[in-house]
Amino acid sequence: MRATGFLSFYDRFATAPMLVLIVKDEGVSLYRAVQLVTVYVLLYALGQPIWGVLSDRLGRLRALRLALAGTLLGSVASAGAPGFNELLMARAVTGFFVGSLFPSMLTMVGDTFAGPARAREISGLQTYTALGTTVATLAAGALAVWADWRVVFAVTAVGAAVFLVLLRRVRFPAGGGPHHDVRSAFTAWPLWTYGLGMLEGAILLGILTYIVPALERDGVSTELAGVLGATYGAGIIGGAWMARRTVARVGRTVMIALGSTTLFVAFLLASLSQGVVALTFTAVLIGTSNAFLHSSLQGWATDVAPAARATAVSVFVCSVFLGSSAATGLTAGLTRHGYGPVFAATCVATVVLGVLAVGSHALWCRRRTELMGESGAQV
Questions:
Q1: CA 209 to CA 328: how far, in whole Å?
Q2: Cα–Cα distance between 319 and 35 in angstroms, integer?
Q3: Contact 297/196 with Cβ under 8 angstroms?
Q4: Is the pLDDT of residue 379 over 50?
């Protein structure tokens, strides 16, 4: 499962470092080349609810095999695309299928583990996704220069083929079960978690986008800015290590509080200074917050609709992406005069997120305990 998470994030972040090379090789403008990322992310996000329903209807492994087969075909088409238009179509198709991989892993963790064990598994999964992000950010561009940018896409194809072979030996419950009910993923509490996911995506992933441009504005070279921005992945890995050792002692509500506080400190630093040291610490702290806050909210998403777990997880992931896109679009114009005001406004938004997430999760836990007590009394 963890290796599949690595593959999904490797492919998701591998295109951006190669855009300049693709521009030269395909003879297109940078604006056109950026569309490779745009269509990929768009299909990645919009496909989430579809994959969630398919996983609940068809079963976890059947949906995962279908997604890996599509990833394999899309990656082969990307590596062998004869022109830019064909490459654009291939990346869109690949994004749709890769979009199923990480939510599938989360759903299977939710089906298999409970309580602190589930939180530890999600943290472990995040470590591998962070490694995939870091490898793609640091190595994809170098591999494209040393060999060819098509090789980067071929790596995904090989990984998908290997995992398809390995899955032939895996047995897993179909998912859904006799009490399967997709409608339960759209009741009050699931909808609330989707709203929190959208707000968190806007803050954590949307504003994270500005770390590297802010470093470049401060005079840092593009190469060094990319390396410093990639310390976000190191923050996730270190944070996941700490989170696995903390969650059993404090519980998810406290984990959300710790993650929110860390995120606030990160953007407070960025609002006070856009220098190299401050923004590097900001990137690391955002990654650490991801391991505490985001993994806890993801864990909550696996709990709110057990009868439609895959659907709930997929819609939650889609909400995070939509929030990220919305934040970038709404704040892009504000960065013309510097990034400080955007980071300062994000501090305020982080306080709102923390209060809402901590308070509502504590309320949800209390009500679930009351319902479980009433059920036990009835029995």
A1: 8
A2: 21
A3: yes
A4: no
Q: Quick: pLDDT tens for 71-108.
A: 999 999 999 999 999 999 999 999 999 988 888 887 88
- The pair of structure tokens assigned to 364 is 């949800």
Number of alpha helices (DSSP H) and beta strands (DSSP E) in the chain:
18, 0
Whether the predicted pLDDT of 179 surpasses 60: no
Task: Return the closest-CA partner of residue 141 out of 12, 283, 22, 5.
Answer: 22
CA 146 to chain centre: 29
DSSP for residue 306: G
Q: Which two tokens stand for residue 194?
A: 């989707």
CA torsion sign for 51, 53, 54, 60 is positive
| Model pLDDT for residues 292-304, shown as the tens digit of each residue | 999 899 889 988 9
Kindly report the backbone phi and psi dihedral angles of residue 229, in degrees, each rounded to the nearest multiple of 5, phi listed first.
-65, -30
Q: Who's near 305: CB < 8 A, 6+ residues apart? A: 184, 185, 187, 189, 190, 311, 312
- The amino acid sitting at 26 is E
Per-residue pLDDT, 177? 45
> CA-CA distances (angstroms) from residue 128 to 1, 67, 76, 184, 231?
9, 19, 24, 31, 15
Phi, psi of 169 (to 5 degrees): -95, -5
What are 145's two structure tokens?
Answer: 């220069």
